Structure formats: C-alpha cells, structure tokens
C-alpha cells in the first residue's frame, strides 16, 4: 500500500490533472475535429490558453470535494456522517455562484472565491435539477438523463475510505442531478477507478477491469464501454478509436474515452500526450480530458503534471488545497478541519 503522503500527492494530482484536462479542452468543447485542426494545426490543441480557466466540470468537482469534506469533518467531530446530503448542499452552493456575481459579505469556503462566480457553460441538466426542491436518488430519479455531468465531477469521491464506498457515494451524488442509470453508474465507476489506483495502488488495467465488473451490476452499457476502451487501447492511440467510443456527451461515453486515452498513453512521461489525445476529437473535449487527467494524476502523482501548464491554471492553489485535504482525510493525516465544519 502507498504511504499516506503518496495518497495525498495523488489526490492533489487527481484534482489538478482533471482541471488541466478541463482547461485544455474547454476552448474546443463543441468543435469538430476538422475545425480544431483548421484553427490549431494538424496536431490540434497542444496546450491550455495563457489563462487556463476552469470549466464547469472542475467547478463542480471542487464543490464535490468540499461537500464530502464537510461530511467527513462533521462525522469526525461527533456529528452525523451524511456525505450525500452534504454534497447536495455543496451543489446548491455552486448553483448560487452561477446565479450571483460575487461573494456575499462573510462568505466561507469555496463561496468566498470570486473566480468561481463565473458561468463556464454549465450543463443544463445540473442547473435545472438543482433548482428543484427535491433531488434524485438511484432508486427515485428526478429525470432520465445519462449525460456526462455526473461523471465529470465524481473523481474526488475516489478518496473515500473504501473502494465500495467510493463507488456508492459517487453513484448517489451523481443521481442527485442525473437520473438515468448511465449518468450515475459511470460516475461510480470513475470514483472506483481513482480509488483503486491512488489508494490501493492497483495497476490501471486491473482497476479498469474491476470497475467494469462492479458497474455491470447496475449498468451493462457502462461496463461494455469500459471493456471496449480496454480493447481499443491495446491497439494503440488513435482518434479513430475515440470515434468508435462516441463523442462523450453521455456518461458511459465520456468515461470510456477518458479511460481509453489513459490506457493508450499510460506512462508518466505521456501525461500531456494523453490529454491531447483526449481533447482532439469531435466531441465533449473538456469532459473527456478531465476524466483522463483525473485518472492519470491519481495513478502517477504530481510529478507528471506540466509545471508550465499549472502556472497558468486558474485557482490552482484552491484545487491543490481541496486535493490535499481529501487525501489527508482518506489516510488519517491531519489537516485544517475548521475550513469545512461551518459550511451550510
């Protein structure tokens, strides 16, 4: 098993890696591959913009982490352990940042960060669901969406205490807004993969296989998409393989494309190449690259993250802090719990 410090480093890298992928892909999220190449050259997008702004996937991932940490610190200090309710409250706080222009006086936690009060093309499913008085569960869905807005925010839950808890919590937290089984089961699968590679130090192919087997109980589509991603990855890195997996607008496709890119270019020195592969296709480029970056960050740690990219990443210090505290909570290391206890 990795040391606590290693897990903390991987948690930081998981969140930063996902944010880098999100920022790399956001400018071409809706572009076709031919249009990407016409603008950026035959190789496509090669690096983030000079100001690498967070996309909605990273915004919501941060609130996922903050919500989970609120539940963890509350439970660790004699209160009730209610992670799904705490994460739901965090998503409501994110919704507030999309409706207001700046923090109110006395704002705490992520709501005190002015940069988060920016609309970055958030998914309509999440926006609409979070405005309803009652949120969904896997057993009582509020809609039938299997869009990617659940999976692209679920990586922080991979730092739950156990693999099964990571899977279950991610399923439940994604189902708050996405009621289709593919929308929440794919989220559970990603959190499980993150946990297996970062906390249990499993090899990536074995972690993918285990996640495919686990998610098969709930969703054959996600399990089949993971199996196909594994098969195609053995054939090498190719945008043509991504096209076979889909465009990434729904959860199973986004997960499978992200997994495929991580498997096809799995080495530490291939991190940037994997993100470029995940971005340069006709589809949901920011989500697929965010999934790839989260997985490879969780697998390899911060040493693989390109420093020149991090230097231009918006709120990199905040992302690092949430990642650190997630890794610390998972391993019993001390961190500043007061940051999370007073959140509502």
TrEMBL record:
- Co-factor note (free text): Binds 2 magnesium ions per subunit.
Superkingdom: Bacteria
Residues noted as binding Mg(2+) in the record, renumbered to the chain = 56, 286-287
Which UniProt keyword terms apply here? Hydrolase, Magnesium, Metal-binding
InterPro entries on file: ADP-ribosylglycohydrolase (IPR050792), Ribosyl_crysJ1 (IPR005502), Ribosyl_crysJ1_sf (IPR036705)
Query: Which coenzyme or cofactor does it need?
Result: Mg(2+)
- Molecular-function GO term, any one: hydrolase activity
Instruction: Give the similarity note.
Output: Belongs to the ADP-ribosylglycohydrolase family.
What protein is this chain from? ADP-ribosylglycohydrolase
Originating species: Saccharopolyspora spinosa
């Amino acid at each position: 098993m990795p040391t606590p410090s290693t897990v903390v480093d991987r948690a930081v890298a998981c969140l930063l890696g996902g944010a880098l992928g999100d920022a790399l892909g956001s400018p071409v999220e809706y572009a076709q591959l031919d249009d990407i190449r016409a603008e950026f050259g035959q190789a496509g997008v090669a690096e983030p913009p000079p100001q690498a702004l967070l996309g909605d996937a990273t915004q919501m991932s941060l609130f996922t982490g903050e919500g989970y940490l609120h539940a963890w610190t509350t439970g660790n200090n004699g209160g009730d352990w209610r992670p799904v309710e705490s994460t739901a409250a965090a998503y409501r706080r994110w919704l507030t940042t999309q409706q207001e222009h700046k923090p109110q006086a006395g704002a705490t936690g992520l709501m005190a960060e002015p940069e988060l009060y920016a609309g970055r093309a958030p998914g309509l499913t999440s926006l609409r669901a979070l405005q309803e008085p009652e949120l969904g569960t896997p057993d009582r869905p509020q809609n039938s969406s299997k869009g990617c807005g659940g999976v692209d925010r679920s990586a922080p839950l991979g730092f739950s205490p156990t693999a099964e808890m990571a899977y279950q919590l991610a399923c439940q937290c994604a189902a708050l807004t996405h009621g289709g089984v593919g929308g929440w089961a794919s989220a559970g699968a990603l959190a499980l993969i993150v946990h297996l590679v970062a906390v249990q130090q499993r090899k990536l192919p074995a972690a993918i296989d285990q996640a495919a087997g686990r998610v098969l109980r709930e969703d054959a589509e996600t399990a089949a998409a993971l199996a196909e991603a594994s098969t195609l990855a053995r054939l090498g890195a190719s945008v043509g393989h991504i096209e076979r997996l889909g465009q990434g607008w729904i959860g199973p496709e986004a997960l499978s494309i992200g997994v495929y890119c991580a498997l096809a270019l799995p080495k530490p020195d291939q991190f940037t190449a994997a993100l470029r592969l995940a971005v340069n296709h006709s589809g949901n480029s920011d989500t697929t690259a965010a999934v790839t970056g989260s997985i490879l960050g969780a697998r390899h740690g911060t040493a693989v993250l390109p420093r020149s990219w991090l230097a231009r990443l918006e709120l990199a210090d905040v992302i690092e802090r949430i990642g650190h505290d997630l890794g610390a909570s998972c391993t019993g290391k001390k961190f500043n719990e007061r940051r999370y206890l007073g959140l509502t």
